[in-house]
Design a protein that fits this description.
OB fold (Dihydrolipoamide Acetyltransferase, E2P), single chain, mainly beta, about 5% helix, five-stranded antiparallel beta sheet, two-stranded antiparallel ribbon, 2 helices
Length: about 120
């Protein structure tokens, strides 16, 4: 098991234009299943980002705090403009965002109130 992540000093300052290049959107998980063949337990998530972006797939190592069935219908935040990558043979199109808890397990980043699918973080 990986050691828990610790807090660290803030990174060097960046320009707002650099932050604006990272496209973080809200989306609703519409399907979640275990990722077969993964080295570490993970789920394959289908996430609805609204009409303009559509449904995108992601692999997420979030099994410590979440069951597949409870993820469906949950609104999350994800980076939608990274290039796709293959994880355990599965195409992952977006990066679901989270913070590590004190043991290093992922806690999802999510809005505290309802927001439309596809809205951008600012």
């Amino acid at each position: 098991m990986d050691a828990p992540r610790t807090t660290a000093p803030a990174s060097a300052p960046i320009a707002y234009d650099d932050f604006a290049k990272v496209d973080i959107r809200a989306g609703t998980i519409v399907a979640a299943v275990p990722l077969e063949g993964a080295r570490k337990p993970a789920f394959v998530l289908d996430i609805d980002f609204g009409a303009d972006i559509g449904i995108k797939r992601s692999s997420a190592q979030i099994t410590a705090h979440y069951e597949a069935a409870e993820l469906v219908g949950r609104c999350i935040a994800a980076v939608v403009n990274f290039p796709p990558k293959r994880i355990a043979g599965e195409k992952s199109e977006v990066l679901v965002l989270g913070f590590p808890d004190s043991a290093g397990a992922v806690v999802l980043v999510a809005p505290t109130h309802a927001v439309p699918n596809g809205v951008r973080l600012f």
